[in-house]
Design goal:
By secondary structure, this protein is α/β, with parallel strands linked by helices. 30% of the residues lie in helices and 27% in strands. A hairpin with a 7-residue loop joins strand 11 and strand 12. Bound molecules: zinc ion.
Length: 394
């Protein structure tokens, strides 16, 4: 069913959300709208440190309990957009969707917190208002948001849990030039990485999803390393037997608003729900999942090979340039370029790799510097102008 959910995506996409960062009033509007739905139940399960309400959206009356949460890191909103799409799917009048909704409704009880770290989301920061990384707070639960998540899951005792994140755009699939679009991890629940019943459920799901997604984006799917981290919620919930699958949206070329990853993620979640409801996942093995390369940090946005570092052109080195994202105002994301690394970058890859070995020097570059302009010339003509890349940022 993955392809069905993927191919029909635009008939259930939530049109009120068009980019990753949206303001609180838009979110409240959506919550109010979902509250009117005969299929969804909305309840406030707590509040953040700054007293923003934390909402839960529930669907279904079946025996299999599923939980999902997104944006425990405030600036990771791709899956939140996908969840909005899924709520639209559930509310749709499309007769084909209705049949699927009925199957989900009868077999599953799905509880979702789609905007967990609302304080971080308002600031567009990973951490909570008090600066705590919630996903390193599963053990002591210093933050009230982590306390809430832990108690919420324990009350539900789910068979499946979806931990939804965004990862840095510049992770690669192993040491390759392939940018990781989607990454999975059937987290380990102990130091030795035992394939418990809980981990196996998540692994089988990941295997199925990998098979389907690889057909759409070949070589762009990775897995995270499964080193156990007791402070992370994924690992903690696996230990508790909650069938936890981590799903990460990475990068997708110049689609900086990640709308293509939103579509993949909406289909990932709907297909997961469907195959859990129909028990189809049980026959999966782990081959496709285990064959995935792990995420590595081997990419730059731009790599200039053997660029001149001074006027004589005698001293040359590779230059790695990355985009840096910053939240500004209440709903904007601004981008700037940073000189990330200078030197021998032979073993690094880039989304845009250029041979600068016969370019002429025009200006100095400094490590760590934020730049707007960078120009190189060849035979008196401009051959590289950073602004042509800036123009691709929408
Ligand atoms: Zn995250």
């Amino acid at each position: 069913m993955y392809h069905f959910f993927f191919d029909n995506y635009f008939s259930y996409q939530e049109s009120r959300i068009k980019k990753r960062r949206f303001d609180e009033s838009t979110w409240q509007e959506l919550i109010d709208r979902w509250a009117e739905s005969p299929h969804l139940q909305i309840r406030t399960v707590g509040e953040t440190y700054e007293k923003r309400p934390i909402h839960e959206v529930r669907f279904g009356e079946g025996p299999i309990q599923i939980i999902a949460w997104s944006q425990m890191h405030g600036d990771e909103a791709t899956a939140t957009m996908a969840l909005c799409d899924i709520f639209n799917f559930i509310n749709s009048n499309n007769p084909e969707f209705n049949k699927i909704r009925e199957i989900l409704h009868q077999n599953l009880s799905i509880s979702i917190i789609p905007y967990l770290n609302a304080d971080g989301a308002a600031r567009w920061t990973r951490e909570t208002a008090l600066g705590i990384d919630m996903n390193r707070d599963a053990l002591h639960q210093y933050s009230q948001e982590a306390k809430l998540l832990s108690a919420w899951a324990d009350e539900i005792q789910p068979q499946f849990a979806f931990n939804l994140h965004d990862q840095n755009r510049l992770y690669s699939v192993g040491n390759s030039a392939h940018q990781t679009h989607i990454a999975f991890l059937a987290t380990a629940g102990d130091e030795t990485g035992t394939w418990t019943e809980s981990r196996l459920r998540a692994g089988k799901l990941a295997n199925r999803l990998t098979r389907f997604i690889e057909e759409i984006i070949p070589n762009k799917v990775a897995k995270w390393s499964d080193e156990y981290n007791a402070r992370a919620f994924g690992d903690t919930f696996q230990k508790r037997g909650y069938g936890l699958l981590l799903v990460e949206s990475g990068g997708s070329g110049w689609d900086l608003e990640k709308q293509s990853l939103r579509q993949l993620t909406a289909a990932i979640l709907l297909d997961s729900f469907y195959c859990i409801a129909t028990n189809e996942y049980v026959n999966e093995n782990l081959d496709a999942y285990q064959a995935l390369a792990t995420n590595e940090r081997q990419l730059f946005d731009i790599k200039l090979k053997q660029a001149p570092l001074e006027a004589s052109g005698q001293i040359r080195a590779d230059i790695g340039i990355n985009l840096k994202e910053t939240g500004s105002n209440k709903t904007d994301i601004t981008y700037s370029w940073t000189i990330e690394e200078i030197g021998d970058l032979t073993y690094m890859h880039a989304l845009n790799e250029l041979d600068a070995s016969n370019w002429h020097y025009t200006q100095p570059v400094f490590l760590g510097e934020e730049i707007n302009d960078l120009i190189y010339e060849k035979a008196g003509e401009t051959i590289f102008d950073l602004r042509t890349f800036t123009a691709k940022i929408k």
